[in-house]
Amino acid sequence: MSSDAGRTRITSAILDRLSGVEWTRGFLLTALLALSWWSTTQGLIGLITAANGYPGAATIITIGFAVAILTVLISWTLERLSSGQTGLLTPLFLFGYVLLTVISVGFGYGFYWKHIESHSAAQRAAEYEVDRLNRTFALAYGRLDESLSALDALATLSVERADQETSAGGTCGPETLAGPGPRYRLRTQDAATMTALRKRIAVQVGEGAEMTPGSLFALRAELSEQLGRLTPSAFASLDEEGTRRLLKETEQVMAETATRYEAFRTGPSVHSAVTLLEGRIDAGQAPMTDGDITFSCPDRELDIIMSQAVSALSALPELPEVALDVPLGPDATVAAFGKFANTMFAPFRGKSDAKLMAGRDYIPLGVAIAIDLFILILSLHGRKPARSIKDHPAYMEQSASIQHLMGDEDNKPPHEELLYHTFWWRGAYYLAIPSASRTSPEAYSSAQRLTLAAMVLADAGLLTPLNQSYSGGQWREKLPERQHHDASRPLPTDYHLYRYKKNSLARMTALLTHGKADNSVRAETPDTISTVRKAAPLPAEVGGSRKPAAEQRIAGLMSNGNAWVKRRSIDRRPKK
After folding, report:
1. Measuring CA to CA, how many Å separate 182 from each of 176, 302, 314, 351, 411?
2. How many Å apart are CA 360 and CA 372, to the nearest integer?
3. Entry pTM
4. What DSSP assignment string belongs to 536-565?
5. Which residues is 541 bridged to in the sheet?
6. For 342-367, b where at least 16 C-beta lie within 10 A, e where not — what string?
7. Residues 43, 422: Cα–Cα separation, whole Å
8. What residue ranges are annotated as transmembrane (predicted)?
9. In this predicted structure, what is the pLDDT of residue 37?
10. Which residue(s) pair with 289 in the sheet?
């Protein structure tokens, strides 16, 4: 009695431990699959939203269903790979798993990047764009200031030359005299022309204390003020909509400034000023005619200043496209996908200007990869019983312990129940153990004993646990006919499947009857029946009478055993 109590206590402890581990693993795996489904769905919706606007309810349902199928395919592919039954199709299954995982990680990365990194990335992008545009406008306005300075110097020098020619003469050479004449008229005309040119340019750019609205200098002041608002503290205090509004306002000011600047740069004022100055430079290089008088008036200092003004006006830079490339909302998801794809294909493209992932971009990628990695670990973990469970390895050391474990109150041979649930299918023997959680209270103890025995035999290397649970509808119907089952005994509804390894069925029988494996056991073919018969004849009780021995029992299993496997999803309700 104490032996039975000890056996029951050990059995319950081991099964409870395994049940807890399996429940935790199942919960974690389900939660991770649900998380992967959600992140992939949201990433795909974000990509569609950026391209075509937010999708409708029907589209969202379709996307969710498609991603659910993808998630189930990942789980099913891992299940098939871990079962070891893929055979020659293993490379195809591996390729399918890698492809599905890349899709899941890619869209999941877009989702996590949007929520983890998009705000700080938008801030960094805005700072970069502000700095770039500040440099661009600073260069353009610097050249414009240089042009105005050259025109100022030119107008001032021309007026000085006119005053000197009026008062003392000698502006065109030491021999020239003061007073009215062709040189006086030339200097007076230069002073008037250069002063008018300077004023005309100044009016257009809006230089001075009283800047006209819409002028270049007025727009520059407005742009500087607007760009000053794009600070890290401003981004930290604004949500997505506020940030988008601020960037849009800044883009409008930049666009207006750029349009006004380009209109000035390519307009007639600059063109006519350059033409006028170039003509005056050419005129000073040769003798000039004023009526009947021909004279020369070289002035190197004036020529240098005019050349500087021409160079400054001609070198006004063309502004590039002024736009703040700051991805927000759905655009952030697109930007994340772009970086992810560019990084993946960068080794095959060589040098490229495409934006790649860097620094903090790998944080959301690590989250997406970790989810799929733990799905892989949990799917492959726990396929065999754990050897770390207390008292479990002791049952693998000697056949007497296994026989003690398998014994029951009626002292039936320890292997009879195992052979009762054995069947032949597709070239191998399989063992279907009733699920203890699904059996009736009367059969619970037997199901526990069978489960633990199968677990021990699997650790001993005789069985391969497939870690699958099937409903046994058709097998349940065939079982009383082929096994002479007592109709009054309740039949299980769910089974856990194991596959016998080569020669292990006869070895198990020999182990449980003689305490050692028969070295003469041959491969498991129909000839194995004779080996099993010699090892252990199996009595069976139906209404108190004894039935034929092991060969008839196993022959029935092999002839009808595949009926249970052909249909794995039959209604679990018992047949009426």
Report:
1. 11, 18, 31, 66, 140
2. 20
3. 0.49
4. -----EETTEE---HHHHHHHHHHHTHHHH
5. 546
6. bbeeeeeeeeeeeeebeeebeebbeb
7. 48
8. 27-51, 57-76, 88-113
9. 92
10. 294
